[in-house]
Every structure is written in C-alpha cells, then in structure tokens.
Sequence to fold (1876 residues):
Amino acid sequence: MLAEIKGINEECGVFGIWGHEKAAELTYYGLHSMQHRGQEGAGIVSSDGVELKPYKGMGLVNDVFKHADFDELSGKVAVGHVRYSTQGGKVIENVQPLLFRAQAGSMALAHNGNIMNAHKLRGELEEEGSIFQTSSDTEVLAHLIKRSGNEISEKTIANALNKVVGAYAYIILKEDKMFVALDPSGIRPLSIGKLGEAYVVASETCAFDQIGATFEREVLPGELITISDEGLSSTRFAMREQRKMCAMEYVYLSRPDSDVNLVNIHASRKRMGIELAKEAPSDADMVIGVPDSSISAAIGYAEQSGLPYEMGIIKNRYVGRTFIQPSQELRELGVKMKLSPVRGIVEGKRIVMIDDSIVRGTTSRRIVQMLKKAGAKEVHVRIASPSIQHPCYYGIDMSTRKELIAANYTLEGICEQIGADSIAYLSEAGLEKAIVKDKTLNQGICTACMTGKYPVKEDGQKEIVFTSC
Amino acid sequence: MLAEIKGINEECGVFGIWGHEKAAELTYYGLHSMQHRGQEGAGIVSSDGVELKPYKGMGLVNDVFKHADFDELSGKVAVGHVRYSTQGGKVIENVQPLLFRAQAGSMALAHNGNIMNAHKLRGELEEEGSIFQTSSDTEVLAHLIKRSGNEISEKTIANALNKVVGAYAYIILKEDKMFVALDPSGIRPLSIGKLGEAYVVASETCAFDQIGATFEREVLPGELITISDEGLSSTRFAMREQRKMCAMEYVYLSRPDSDVNLVNIHASRKRMGIELAKEAPSDADMVIGVPDSSISAAIGYAEQSGLPYEMGIIKNRYVGRTFIQPSQELRELGVKMKLSPVRGIVEGKRIVMIDDSIVRGTTSRRIVQMLKKAGAKEVHVRIASPSIQHPCYYGIDMSTRKELIAANYTLEGICEQIGADSIAYLSEAGLEKAIVKDKTLNQGICTACMTGKYPVKEDGQKEIVFTSC
Amino acid sequence: MLAEIKGINEECGVFGIWGHEKAAELTYYGLHSMQHRGQEGAGIVSSDGVELKPYKGMGLVNDVFKHADFDELSGKVAVGHVRYSTQGGKVIENVQPLLFRAQAGSMALAHNGNIMNAHKLRGELEEEGSIFQTSSDTEVLAHLIKRSGNEISEKTIANALNKVVGAYAYIILKEDKMFVALDPSGIRPLSIGKLGEAYVVASETCAFDQIGATFEREVLPGELITISDEGLSSTRFAMREQRKMCAMEYVYLSRPDSDVNLVNIHASRKRMGIELAKEAPSDADMVIGVPDSSISAAIGYAEQSGLPYEMGIIKNRYVGRTFIQPSQELRELGVKMKLSPVRGIVEGKRIVMIDDSIVRGTTSRRIVQMLKKAGAKEVHVRIASPSIQHPCYYGIDMSTRKELIAANYTLEGICEQIGADSIAYLSEAGLEKAIVKDKTLNQGICTACMTGKYPVKEDGQKEIVFTSC
Amino acid sequence: MLAEIKGINEECGVFGIWGHEKAAELTYYGLHSMQHRGQEGAGIVSSDGVELKPYKGMGLVNDVFKHADFDELSGKVAVGHVRYSTQGGKVIENVQPLLFRAQAGSMALAHNGNIMNAHKLRGELEEEGSIFQTSSDTEVLAHLIKRSGNEISEKTIANALNKVVGAYAYIILKEDKMFVALDPSGIRPLSIGKLGEAYVVASETCAFDQIGATFEREVLPGELITISDEGLSSTRFAMREQRKMCAMEYVYLSRPDSDVNLVNIHASRKRMGIELAKEAPSDADMVIGVPDSSISAAIGYAEQSGLPYEMGIIKNRYVGRTFIQPSQELRELGVKMKLSPVRGIVEGKRIVMIDDSIVRGTTSRRIVQMLKKAGAKEVHVRIASPSIQHPCYYGIDMSTRKELIAANYTLEGICEQIGADSIAYLSEAGLEKAIVKDKTLNQGICTACMTGKYPVKEDGQKEIVFTSC
Fold:
C-alpha cells in the first residue's frame, strides 16, 4: 500500500521447499510472510516427483489461495512466488512460477531480479523460431535453458545463466530436482534454511521464522545449488565476486524482522537513525517516523539525540484494496485514508520527521503539509539514506530519473518543494556504517541508485523494457 | 449442463469480427449465443491495429466478462472463443484465444476442432528447442507458423496447416490482419456474415442473429480467408474435398436456431423425428421428448405418428453451477434437480420417449425409471439418430469405446439395460435424409462415431492425447 | 426472468416440513423448485424444538444458500419462503420468514398473498404503541397474534386471522408447533404432502415431487391446521366458502408439473390451447408458442387445429442476472438476449403465435416485430386466456390499470398496437372449461383481473400500499 | 484482529452528521476511521427530510459498502454504526442503525453501550403486546420511546431514557431531527464537531480528523441534544453527575490519535508507560511493546527508564479475515500469522515487554514463549494498567470472571502462568495520574473492571443477557 505512495516497488519474492509432506501449504505461509515484496499476483507449483502442479492468480496471497485446494498441490516439493508487476504487465500470464511443459519433462521458474539483456536475447530467440506467451524476462531464461540441450540440468542451466546479464535470484523446479541460483554480484537476497530434514529457500529470512525453519546460510554470488532426494550439492557458474547486496533492501524493502546477508533489518535501520542523528542533529521537541518503514530509524534518531520519540502519524490498519476512494470534493475537505496526523501530539511542537527515503517528493510534501495543518510549528525532515538520483536496473521499480526529486533539485530546492523547515540526508559513509557489521563477511552493498556506481553493466542499457521481477 | 449428463461435449466455438467500432462488445454477445459450445472458459483478444489486447477467464461468458472493462479491449477488430476442456486441462493457460507476443508482432489463435498428429508434431518441435506453456494442441500450430518464417502471413499459415492432420476451424489474428481457415473435409462448422461493412466469422449462425448480422456464406473446406482493411480475399491451402460436416452438430450440439452448412437445426431434427416415426412406429398414448435437445424430434415424431405431443418431463430453469448437490440420503429420497417427470401427464400412460442419442445409457436409464416411478405404464424409447459405437477424433469429447453402451450391447441388451419396453434407433439413411436437403450443395456429413467411416485418418491415432478444442 | 418481460409477478412461495432429520435441507430443495414464484430473496427458519434458527438473504435460492451451513439450521422442523418484492421494498428486512423473538417464545411467519386492510390495521396498531421494522404486511399479522394474547396458539392465530381481509396462505412456526392457514376463499394455492412420517406443506405440488414426497390433500378455504409431534389436527377459523383459486396460477404462474387444486397445470394449459383453437381458428402454416409458459397451450392449439407445431422462437438458457446489457447502439443493431426467432423456420410463413396472456402489450409487440423481421409473412396472435383489464388485490403484482393494454384499447386497437395480422382471446367460459375438470371438487376460480368479479372486498381498497407477498 | 487475541472487545461506534450534501459518504469515512470499534457489521441510515433510507451489512465497513450506491443514500443527514457482536448474535438483524417504520414517521437508532435492565424492560413490553425482531437491547429503547407517546420527540425520548439503566451513547434519527444522548455518568465517549455549517457527532474524535471536521465539545453526562435545520439545542434528561469515562478507552480501545474526554490517547498511554517505569523498573537490555496498542506505553517506559526501545515483535500487516488457518501440525512447527518475534533483536537479551492489559493470559503466555524461543534471555512483563478482575456491565465484551487470570491467581501465580521472569501492573493511582490532566475538567474515570467500583448499579445484574452495543 505504502509502496504505491512512495514510488519504490520491490519486484518479487521467491520461496522453495524440498522434502516436506506439507510443501505447498508451507510455501503459502512463506509467501504470505513476503507479501510486502509483491502484491499483484502469487503462485505455487508443487511436485510429487512425477508431475508439476500449478496454482496461481492475481491479487494478494490470501485472495489467490483462499479457494485453493491444497490436496491438488500434493507432493513434498514446492516453489512459490509473489509478484509486483510494472504498469502494463498486469496479466495473469506473467504471474510466476512460469510453467513450461515438454514431453521430456516440465520446468517451473520463479525469479526475483531483472535481466538487463532480455530484449536482445529475446530478439535472437525469436529469430530462431521461439514464440513467447508472456512479457516477462523470466521466459527468456526458460528458452535459453531449452536451447542449451533438451535436458534441464546443472549444465544447461549454467550455460543459460552465463548468457544472462543482470541481478537475479532464481528457483527452478523440475519433477525430481530443484535448482537455486544467484547472480555473480549477489545483488538480490536469497537464503537457505532447514525445517527438520527439509531444505527451504527464500528471498527473506522472515519466511523461515514464519514456518519455524532455521537459517542455514546465504546463497553465494554466482552459486548454483542443486537439491534432490540425494541432498544439496553446490557448484559455481561464475567467478566469485565481491557481493553487492541492494542497499534499498535495508533502507526500505525488507521486513524489519528479516536478516539480509546476515544483518538484521530493524537493527540496521535503527543504526541509520543513530548515524543520521550524529550527522544531522536538529533543535526540536520530538522525533516522529513515517509509518511503517521509518519507525526503526526514528527510534534510533530519538535515542541518539535524546529527544522523545512520539507517535505523531497514525497508519490506518484497515485500509485495503477495496477501499472506496473519496471524491475530489471530499479530498479537499481533508478526507485521507492511509496516514493521519495526531493533532494532540504535534500541535504547537517542533518536529523532526524521519523518513527512510524520498523518491518523487510528493508524499513527503503531503505529510509535511498534514503535520503543519495539524498544528506543528516546525517540521525538520531527516532522511535515513542518501538521496536517490539514479535509476535501478536490478529489479526495483523506481520512478524515472525525470521524476526523482533529488536528480532535479538542490538540497535547498527539495526543502522548499516539500515545505519543510530544514532537510538532511544520511551520507553514503553513514549508510555503509549502519549496514556493514563485519568486513570479513562480504557484506558489500549496491548503492547505484544513490551514487550511480553500477556494479553490473550492459552496453546500451537504457531502461527496463521487459516486465522484470 | 445437460451436456454433463449426456457425456457428449462440444469442444469450443470461435467468433471474429473485423471493422466495427464495438468489436469486442459484439464478440461478447456472439460468444454468449454460443455458450452451449463451451462452458469452461472464454476469452477475447481485440486489436486496434497496433496492439493485441487479451481478456480471458474461467467459467461462463457472463462470469468471465461481468467485470471486464471493454474500453481496454478497444479497436475495430476482435476474436473470441468459448471453450470446453476435457478432464485435466481445466487451467486458465488453456483458455483461448492463445496470445503469442514477439518483437516482430503478436498473434492470437482461436480454434475449434482437434489436431490428430499434435503429439508427434510437438515432440519434433521440442526436439528443435521449442517450449510449451499450455497442454493445448492449438499451441502446436503457433509454433509451426513461427517456424515457417518469422512473418505471420497467408504463406506461413498455409505451410503450417499443411503439416497438420485433423478437423479444425481457425481464426488467427495479428495486429492488422485476420486469417480464417477450415480443414479440407470441412468437419467443423464455420460461417461468414456481414454487419454493415464489418465482416463476421462464427462457428454457428445463431451468433449472427444475436448481433443483427446477416449470413453471407460458408467457409469452404480447405479455404484460407484473409480479412484486412482492404477487404476479404480467399485462397486454398488444400484441394477441395467432399464436405463431411459432423452429424452430431445436427443431432445434438448446435442450437435449434442455427443453420449449419445451410440446413436449419430445428427443422433437421424435426425431420429426424418424422423419419424415426416412419421407421419405428409405436403403439402408445403420447410422445414426449427429453429437454431440451430432443424436443424438435419429438414434435416431428408426434406429427408423423398422429400421437399427441405432451410435456412429460420438465427441465428446471434455475439449475446452475452453484447448486448445492443433494446428499446421497436425499438423492435416494428422489431429490433431483435438472429433470422432473410430470406425474399428472404420464400417470397410467403408454409413452414414446424421444431422445436424440444415447452415449453411456446411464441418463436414459434414469429417465425411464423416473417416468415409471411417476406412473408411466409403458416407456418406448426412440432415438433420433443411429447408435454411437465409435470414438470421435475430430474434437467432440465423447466417452471412450468401453463406455459406449451401443458398442457393448445388442439392441435387446440396451433395451434391458435402460429398462425400456422397446427401443429403436434412426437408420443412417434416415439421418442423411433428414439432414441433406440438396445434394448439389456439398452437404455431406461425417457419421464416423456411428458408422466407423472416418473421413480423415492419421496413422497410429489411438486417442486424444492433447487438450483439443 | 420472463416475469420481468411480462409484467406479472407471482408474489412468493411457502414451504414447511415437520418431522424429518434433514428438514432445512429439504426446505432448500423445495424452495428451489418454487424459484419461479419469487427471485428477490429467500429464507429458512428451522426449529430443534427449543430454538428457532434463521438464515436468509437477497437473490436466488442458490445464491442465498450457497454459503449456508445447514448444520446451523438443525432440527426436524423448518419453514421456508421465496419472495418477489414490489418496487421499493427490496430490502433484506422484508425477506421472509419473518422472525419475532419473545421471552415467552419465538414465532416465524411465511406468507403468500396480500392483506387488503393492512394499512388500516397497522395504523391502529401503531396508535396502540406497536413499532414496525419492515414494510411487509406480514408483520401486521404477527402483531395481531401477539395482541390476541401472550401465547401463540390456535386461538390467538384464529383471532388474528379474523381481523384480516385478503388472500393468504400462511405457515407460522413456533418452537414446538407449526400452524398452516388458508384464506376463506382459498385464493392462493396450498397443499399438504407426506414424506415418510413427515408432514410437508407447499404452495405448489412440484415441491413434493422435488423431494420425493407424495401429495395428500389441499388445505381447505378457511382451514387452520396445527402440526406437532402429536400429529396433524384441523379446525376452521372461517365458514367454508366456495373456493376461488386464482386463475392466473393456471394461465401463467405455476410450474407445468404442479397440480393446483387437483388440476395439472400443463394439461389445463393444453386444454386452453384446444379451446382457443375451437373458438378462434386461424388460416396459417404453423403454430408457435412464446417460451416457456405458452408452449403447452401452443401444443394444444396445434393438436386441435391440425397445424404443425414448430419451434419458431428460442429462449436463451444462459441469460442470467449478471448479464451485461447491450448499449442502445447495440440494441438497435438487433442484439437481443432472451428470445430469438428461428429464421430458418419462420421465414416466408404464416404463423399462429400463442401467448398465455398480454399485460402491457410491449413484449407482444416486440415478439411480433422480431418474427416479421425474421421473415414471417403473417403473425396471428392467439391469447390462451381472457384479456386482463382489472388490478389484482390478492397478491399478484400486475401493472396498474393505466398500463393494461386491454383496459385501454379495443380488440382492433390491441391488434394494431402490437402489429399483428389478427388477434383473439380465449373466452371466460373457455378458460373455465379448460381448468375445471370436476364440479364436485370445489374447483372454482377467481377471474377478477379478467372479469372484475372480486370474490373478496375491502371498503375503500384502492391499491396495494404495503409490500404484499 | 488483535481484539480476538486479547478477549476485550469494544462494542460499537456511532457517527452522525447533519447538514452536508455528502452526508452518507462522510459517514462512511467516519465509520471507517472507527473500524477498530466493531468489525462484525456496519450500517448507515440517511434522511432527505422526507424519508429514512437504510443500507447495512455484515463485515468490515469496506466490505459492506463496496457495492453501495451512495445516490440511494441521498439527503443531507445521516447516522452510521459499526458493530461488534457477542457470540450468538451474529445476524444481520442486529446490525445498526435499527430502523423502525410507522405511518406517523420513521426512526433510526444507533447505540454504543449496554442497557443493564434490558431483560426486565423487554419482559414488561412483551407482556403489553410488543414484539421484537432483534436480540439487541437497542430495540428496547425504540419500544419505550413509542410507548411514551406516538411522537418521537425530546419529551418521549427523555421519558424512555429515564427508564433505562446502563452506559450508553445514542444517536436517534427521524426524518427532520437528530437526537444525541449520553448516559448520566458519561461512561461511553461521544463528541460534537463541526464541518463548515454541518454538525458532526462521533464516538471518537479520530472520525472528525478523518473528514476534516473540527472538535467542538464533549456531549455531557445526562445531556440530550436536538439537531435540526434550526440548529443545535440542548437539554438534560438526568441530573449532572461526576463523569466516569471508561478507563479501558484509554488503556486499549480508542485509537491513539483520538482525544477522549479532552485527553489524547497516545499521550495518556505514554504517561502510563512513564508511571509504570517509575513504579516498576526493571534491570534489562531493552524495552519492547506488543503491537499495536502497547507501543505508546512501551515508548514511555523506555524514555523514563533510559533503556533503548526496540522493535522486538512484528505484526503482520497483511493478516485478514480470509486467512487460511494453519493446521494443528503446522501450528506446532511454529507457523504463526499475526505476531512474529525479531530474532536478530531479542536473541540473548534481557527484555522488558510492555503490554496494555492482560485478560485471560493466554496471549501473554504465547508471546513470552515466542520471545524465549527466539532467544530472549529474560522477559520481564510490565502491564500499563491495573489488573482486570471484574466483569464489565457497560458495553465491553470481556471474558467472564472465571476466565480472568487476575481474578484467579496471585501476582506470582500469573507470572508463573505466563512464564515471565517478573511481572508488575500499573497502580490505580498511576493510571489516574496518566489519564486525568485537569481535575476541573470532569475527567473522572470508570475503573470498575479493575477495582470493582461500579458507578452504575442495577439490582440483580449478573451478566449481559442481551446483545449490547
């Protein structure tokens, strides 16, 4: 929901489980815990060793599966996916896992990330006679695997992955094997857990906690893991590189209770608030955070600054998709549904308002206005991450450069645009300090959208052409 | 609904329109009039000359489109499809029109019929690196077209059709052209109509009446028609053969108000009843028909025999999909939902019961029992078509040979099985006399399921492997 | 559905069962078979001897009960109701059975008919301090019973019924007794059946056939029946009068398989057609009937006249409530959903078109036009009942006098209005001959809407003020 | 949602607006902001000065109104209600506003609270001939008003209110007047606001903020307000008493952004946390709160104690009603949907866990276990209100005395039951200090459920017999 306000959208979460009687049902719970990573559609493909069985639909995980018969998703193996789709791609065909059937055996794919050379690869494949039913870049990988040999194996998958440039976390299922792969820079998160004897794979560790599984280890950059009844084996399809985990996972995207690349999200956000308070203190009466993602940073800022932390903005828990939108006339009266200021708290006060990031600035302006209208004397905006000035090619759907406020205005300009009394961003060094706990742990981050330092490049890459995930 | 009782299931209806502002909406009404040809799913793909836009879903036409926004199906061209799917294929992926996207241009396919060599062709295509997302034989044709050249044209389509063996009526849409094709024996129905300047194509002419269009002509066996803004042009991809229109279209499948290959369905059914009365008269008090498909034949039988026609069985108009099925206990009490005997009519009477056909015989037995329980003194069953003893390979989903009562019992055996006092079938000659009005009109029929005379053969064809349509 | 076309609307059907383990479920099936008597809402109240448990909702029986948990409607006793509501009263509150709770015991009421003095009675009750939650005249009876003494008994019910003037069939349920009452003229139908040891009560006998029950007898005019675990006992709250069963039940309202007051509906309709052929023959090529209610009369007319009966109009079986209505533009193109002419049958032919009745004449005009547009040379309209010229005060929702075509035009005028080549109605004597089989059976009919002879009168009665049922 | 976990359920919220073009729509938004006060059903009755128009349904406000046509709720006046219903009363009849129709004029009632002598009053009314259609105590008041004179006026309402004993906030609507009444002790909250010239009434002030209205004043204990086109006038139906606002509104029920009796909820909760830290400090590493209602108190405790406030428990934002519940087997695996511990935060730490209250103790035990399983070294439970030991007769649905853990165990016993390392409650004095800001403002509170000091008594009152609101 807030995702829509902000203009940053995570693209997808993947989940897989091997070796549990309740595989499909546990996948459902795992997907549910990663609902924040994609709200447009969800799907599960299970395997009983003989056949792959799909179930998918548009909407939230609950809506998709409320009429599902899990008996029809039998088997001890399952793969699931939640999807956020960019505009224009909101069709059921694109909902994953994609399922490809062949007389030699079927294959299901679940993907989080973006293939940067998908357009070029697809053109080549079409030249060779391939036809496509989705606008998803994930379908390209399926064709590449198929063209690498009639069998779906470690070898054909590695071949296909080596043709692909981008950021990706894949789970590939055939009747009797599951393959797990992460891009050579490890830009997208992907972890391995165990639930008894069963193996579990998920984009976020909150899915492990959800089902009672325990975290085992990270999937490594460039690693290709094979899981079967013989157990788990690992190989590399690419040279090991310095990991470049997406910084936005820490700043905004992941759930506070997840550990991303061994770092707890809430804790890292709180440290961002602490660093921000050190770098950009403020003479004010209280600290408030924009719910939900900025609460942790606001608590950190309050703790470091010694200012009281207050609940100055409320998020309505009952706002959903079916909500009847107020007419223009009523909006002007002040009818607002998602966020409300707490007049009794902010009236007459000087406020430090912590937000995790600013994309277009429209939401920030609205919140500052809302606070002032509720009586706030001053509003000092503090952003718990560096300013976003560059597009992401690695699977996050952000606004185009033209829309990014920080790409078009100076700090003073931004402050004026959003109507704040002052504004400051966390520095890149501050961000890194907040995230990286242990240099020996390969905890490097990708800050391309803030710094323009792109770890992976593709010649001529201009924009996301395909629906990525 | 009754379709389920009987065990004969039409597989699909197709509809296309070129050159009307309300193309998608008219397609909706056309599909609605052909709802009896397929109840599992429905879809429309429209074109505005630049882009193909799909909308499809599971269920009845009304259910699928009740939330559709026809503004999103803009354009003056549209293709639609209603689908009956055989067991195991009830997934949204198989709902047509199938849509294939390519950088060179997209293609939508709507199909009624069955490709007999689909399994073999698919195996070959997979060997060459093709991947499949549906279990529909229609996807095979798309690959064949694509493999015949990167362009979708008369030439590549004709090439592809020449590799295919079976019974089929196709509508193929690209952004700026519509192609219409019928198999060389013309086994499946397909007609051309006009609505003002717009061209209309449909499996049944009732779709023309529905939208106020007028019938122009039949699509000819082996004909490939191209419709574009330049008008309609025709070519042949196969030699002209004697037409072999599916006899079951007349006996059971089509709507009474349709003209199939220039013959009105109600009139032909009434003539079947007349012929049947001549061939197999009966000493009885009244004639009744099994609703809805046998009413016409019953009226003909009554007229010829001089016996009164009575409404001895009522069909409940409110039985739908959401109906709560009675428990076993209640079924034993006689709770029945679809058909009810009219006790006040049948009590103490000798009845001629007309049915259009018998497949497994279970429904006939149930109806005979029902009539006797309501007091009928005698029930003489008269079937207005020859007995069904052979499987259909041309797109009709009938029971397997093992289940066909006429393939396993003598006439006396059948009579005993269903508990009738006497039984008789219409002869093949009688059927032909009832259907073919004018020998010069190429009105030949396929009676393979009754006579075993298959007009089209494929070596080693044993059963329907793919989901046909 | 057709009900809406015609402008005659049955108001409600009632069902009750005493002494069966599956009482509520059987009530569901009984209501389903009487769906044609009311489509706006449905409800069931069951009793386990201790407590009355209600379930009701707006819409068709299937829609209302598809999510019902019949375990929550436990008990061996149940009462049910289907309702048609007049404009303005489409609210859930009015859906019956109405349930009134009191510390001394609860009471449920199901009603078919109309209380003519409801407005006056309600005014008096309000003066005395009663408050009302529905706009249903049924609530008035509940208050009258309550005011007749704190107990719900034969005596208080008889007292209340004696204050009420109108046409009514009531089922009243308390925890341990069921009461059944019919108005002194027996204008509305109500029958008693048995299912094993259980007693069944229903507006139409088709409900008995539906659940496997057998017909026992009619409820008599002015009879009050009490059913309990001690069995069935009967008393009279009013003097026995000549029965005046609503003639429209035979002409249009009841199901063809029901016996109303011992007369089968289909058979009586066929006799209406026979009498009509005798009274008003026609020089034509064929006879057709307007589906569904006029088919029986058309068959009778054909049989008597010797003309062939043909299926010249088809009714679409898939038209439902969710249907997307064609835009004005499309309607002008001829898009029509419910009835279609069969061009192949009617083209170039002189047609006798049988209809059961004409109310406003708009539907008749549309059908005649439709037939002529499909090529009919002549259309001779024959109506299988006398013309409707007077309002009904006994529970049938017909158009007002101003709208009744026969109240405003001569026969010639009507013929011209509807565009027919000739028109004739059945005579009152012909109707009576068709319905009354046996004068000794008290089979008198109410023809007030045709003849203005009202069997029950209330001073100053002008129009239906309350929502009747 | 959490309401169900806790076992305390607010019973209803009321909203009214007089004099705005968009009355019904604004009522919808107002009800939406008070969704937390009742999730079982919602309704609106509007008036256009001539007629009262109702719309209501079961479920959340969004679900009830998503298909509503607000044009049918026309008029410048509206009353709305959200309802929580106690077990057994989950029927649409009980959803408010209740609407009573009479020839002299209609009346709608919306009620929050509980009538303690409803059972007795209803018995008396039934003796006098009244009949009831709901099990709601609100219907009793309607009868009392009606019995006080045929007119709905200040006088008849005051008469009726004087017969009633309990806690209540009423809005009563007739075609041309709105009446607002609060019980003599002012136990339930009710405020007056203005939106331009329009008057607004609501249970919580968050509804004013929602629609852009401004707070005017509290409705006073024993006050009866009349609003009409002539404006607002006030009278008293009872002597002014010391106000006894329900303390649980502050502790748990109201939204943090509401001001209840001039006191902001978040601020009062934070002060409860501060007082609790003073009264019951704890040697620990961090403070965490149980979301959502205990967050404010946790922040206060942290601020006062100097311990860091951490997000140790996450509440899943996507848990809704349609959620598929995990099977027993999966629950044992640890599949939990609503609350999740943040392992990365709590592992190895000594935790102060703040909760607002304990009812049965089962939830507290589960949360303590969850934290320990996630690695917490110690869990010190601190409750930000005095222990609940007595039932509420004023409209809050709490567990019975038998189930209240504090009524059955000593402090040590409770600590052991929930598995905490220590436990402490806020004192009554601490609670009062946190809530009452200004003694001159009549800010007295009802602490009956904690102290047994009942401000309003009814002889023989034992339990809630009727469905209260």
